[in-house]
Amino acid sequence: MTPISSTPSPAALTASGPSAPSDPEAAAKQFESVLVRQFVEVMTKDLFDGEGEGMLTGQADLQRDTLTDALTEHLVEAGTLGVADLLLAQWARVGHVPASGPDDASGAELVPEVESAPMPPRKK
């Protein structure tokens, strides 16, 4: 029997997953969430190996999925990885979204300024 991957295919996400994001911020957050989930799945893949032998094998998968969901949600909500911010900054730089400016009364900027370093010369 071939194991079924817990990561849904792009077609499955489109058919039954979250709806298309309504704005660039939502799209960036959704992308960050998918990317972080894939990272966390790889990190926790072998976490429960050897546990849950016999009748509890399915329980180990459930625990791993629950942990993956919790870690993913925490990392994305904390914003410490900054993937969504980098996407928004890049989209603003190439003109796909409006340039950064105060987003609310606090004066916080929606899109951070990101300077790109020049590319080093290629070696032949």
What does this structure look like?
With 124 residues, the chain is mostly helical. It is 49% helix and 0% strand. The protein has four helices and no strands. It has helices at residues 10-16, 24-44, 57-78, 83-93. α2 crosses α3 (57-78) and α2 crosses α4 (83-93). It is flat and about 50 Å long.
Which descriptors would you attach to this protein?
124 residues, mainly alpha, 4 helices, disordered N terminus
pLDDT under 50 segments (min length 5)? 1-5, 101-108
How large a portion of the residues is in β-strands, by DSSP E? Answer: under 5%
Structural class: mainly alpha
How would you sum up the global shape?
A: flat
Number of helices: 4
What is the distance, rounded to the nearest whole angstrom, between the alpha carbons of the first and last residues? 49 Å
The ordered string of helix (H) and strand (E) elements is HHHH
**What is the oligomer described by this structure?**
single chain
Number of strands: 0
Helix content: 40-55%
Round the Cα radius of gyration to an integer and report it.
Answer: 19 Å
Q: In this structure, how is the largest beta sheet organized?
A: none
